[in-house]
Design brief:
With 193 residues, the protein is an all-alpha fold. Helices cover 56% and strands 0% of the residues. It has one domain: Endonuclease III, domain 1 (Orthogonal Bundle). Helix 2 runs antiparallel to helix 6. The chain is globular, with a radius of gyration of 16 Å. The model has no long low-confidence stretch (mean pLDDT 96).
Length: 193
């Protein structure tokens, strides 16, 4: 069985089967998902998945060092790029977020280390039995959201952050009947919470 939200679209099922919930411990991947989850606000995740390659090209492979150097001319270029969501607030937020990632890296040694510190360095392993059991945010997501907002990040509300946590494996929110829940639980070597 697969989580029902994955549906039957090949792009979405591949994302579910290979990527969603896999623990990410590198700044680039976490910055990618921070950008994509922020871009998704008000849209469907499928819309963002279809534009993901465009985002990778437009945002320098999600290298936060490069994106942090984007200028007003780069923002203008991005606003004309039909391969991404052309929303000025989301674009300027992504550039500001790259700069904030670098500041966190300077202070904490890495963006990944900082985010993982909110879950004690290990994926949370709740046992969600159905899609209706999945929350839209958690105390950990609210804490991360507050921290990132304080550091100048944008588009980092608790729901967006919880989506980031799910996507990047800070929490294993595959339902327990899904084949990926067992695989991911076994791969991290931790029992359910």
């Amino acid at each position: 069985m697969r989580c029902e939200w994955a549906g039957d679209d090949p792009l979405m099922t591949a994302y579910h089967d290979r990527e969603w919930g896999v623990p990410a411990h590198d700044d680039r991947t976490l910055f990618e998902f921070l950008t994509l989850e922020g871009a998704q606000a008000g849209l469907s995740w499928m819309t963002i998945l279809r534009k993901r390659d465009g985002y990778r090209r437009a945002f320098a492979g999600f290298d936060p060092d490069q994106v942090a150097r984007f200028t007003d001319a780069d923002v203008a270029r991005l606003l004309a790029d039909v391969s991404i969501v052309r929303n000025r607030a989301k674009i300027t937020s992504a550039v500001a977020n790259a700069r904030a990632v670098l500041a966190v890296r300077e202070e904490r040694g890495g963006f990944a280390e900082h985010l993982w510190s909110f879950v004690d360095g290990r994926p949370l392993q709740p046992e969600r039995r159905s899609l209706s059991d999945l929350p839209t945010d958690t105390p950990e997501a609210r804490a991360i959201s507050r921290d990132l907002k304080r550091r100048g990040f944008g588009f980092v509300g608790p729901t967006t952050i919880y989506s980031l946590m799910q996507a990047c494996g800070l929490v294993n929110d595959h339902v327990t009947g899904c084949f990926r829940w067992a695989e991911l639980t076994a791969s991290v070597g931790f029992p359910p919470c």
